[in-house]
Amino acid sequence: MNGGPPRPGTRLLRTAAVAAATAAWVVAAFLNGLSGLSFGLAVAAGAALTAVAVGLPLVAERRARLRAATAEQIAEDAAARMQLVLDDALEPLAYLVGRITDARAANALGLVELQGQAVAVVLAAAAEVLGTRRLRACYFALTAGPPRRLLNAGFRGRAEAPRTTFTAGTPLGDEALRLLSDRDDLFCRDARTLAPPGWAAADHDYRTFIVVPVATESRELGIITIDGLQVGDLSEADVAAVRVFARLLAAALNT
Questions:
Q1: Count of domains in the chain?
Q2: Which residue segment(s) compose the domain that 167 sits in?
């Protein structure tokens, strides 16, 4: 790799280059008849300029090595997260979806249990693989009503049960139900400045959140929310991952 430290021979050559260039300034000053203070200033200036000429590329090279190391670490972290998704979420969820398909023709009790496991797997994966500590993932299931509501049906991650109920006829409930009906996602970077209608900052500890509908083309099932305590805990890029989890969960719950 090109990002490794310079070899000892390379360091020696650079040191020799600085010494040789400085010596050239000394010889030039001597040949030009400089002496005393003028001679000293000429030599000092030559040494300083040579050091700058050689040093600046060294600084740039070091920064490039650091950037390369950082990019490599980012790639390794992303690969580890993807492997975590495959091992801890997608593979067991795919297995559960297969069992759910079989259970539909068997007994309703087994089906409900398997669907509960699917919710738990999705929420645990969403809370763990988005790259930030102390995220919380929640699933709110749709009830027909009237009025229609989205009720807490499970959460994972940060040990704080959600207190919100989304009820039709309230600003917050209508907005959440609209997202579900329109199959829209919502990313709120900072809930204190960009909150959706009806959201009261004083009622919540978290600062950033994502809302993604859990639905098929023909059936509305609920919503998944992911929230973090600090601005920056979630990003727009995380929405796509949550959307995948939501669609897989919709397939598992669509009976």
A1: 2
A2: 107-253
Q: Is 234 in the same domain as 177?
A: yes
pTM for the predicted model, two decimal places: 0.64
For residues 101-106, give the mean pLDDT.
60
Sign of the C-alpha dihedral computed for residues 228, 230, 234 and 236 taken in this order: positive
116-142 confidence digits (pLDDT tens)? 888 888 888 888 777 667 899 999 999
pLDDT recorded at residue 160: 86
Same domain, 48 and 21: yes
**144: CATH:** 3.30.450.40
Residues 71 and 189 in one domain: no
What pLDDT is recorded for position 223? Answer: 97
| pLDDT above 60: residue 14 | no
Identify whether 96 is part of a domain.
no
**Alpha-carbon Rg for the chain in angstroms:** 31
